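Take a minute with the sequence and fold tokens given here and flag any structure token that looks odd. Thanks in advance.
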Amino acid sequence: MIKTIIKWAAVFYAALVSVSASANVTVMVNKQVFEFEQPVRLNAVLAPVANSAQWYWPVSSVYNLNLTEAEREKESVLSEIRRLLGVYKNDNDMYHTLASLYEQVALWTVATRIPMSVSYNRARLFPQDNPQFKEGKYLIRISPRPDVIHVSGAVLKPGAYKHSGNTSIYTIANSVAVQEEADDSFVNIITPMGQVEKKGIAYWNVDFSQIMPGSQIYVPISPRYFDSALEQLNDRIANLAVHRILPQ
């Protein structure tokens, strides 16, 4: 899993470096790079690849590579985890959970995501679904229907877990082995559309709604009554996960 992430990140950045400096608009769709001399609409960007596979448009995502907010937030989150490692250096369970979380986030490839939907057919038919890409560099991720859920947080084995039809949030959340300091009442769901939702997994608040393939589950650290920093860290990581460029 780690080797796959590192390999993809290397390809991703190599492709960006290799694009022509003369292009006004550069859009990378997965690993294909397209250059335009002037602002371009979404339908024109997708046209060369739209019929090359059975794309599952609901899991598509768009990133503005001109912005660095996500990368800076990642570094800030890592800095906060390092601070908390010092605070909890004598608490073995919490220290181990925080150390694992640090390793996970450090491996994430992130970019500032644009909150927009992607659909070739809708872009062709409806002007409101056919936004314009102005000068700069962008990344669009499209894929066939995924068959996994990406799990991170206070878990023993972060990574991709198999998703099958009618999989509920409760079922998958309770099938993943967690750390001693994991919250046993709630998880954060990061939908493929970039929404963060808090869902119950305890007997008193259980949520049996289905989870969409390609979603992320962030298992938060159990909050401490005397330390709001842990709860704030959970929120920041869940929101940072919106900007993850997930391995395909």
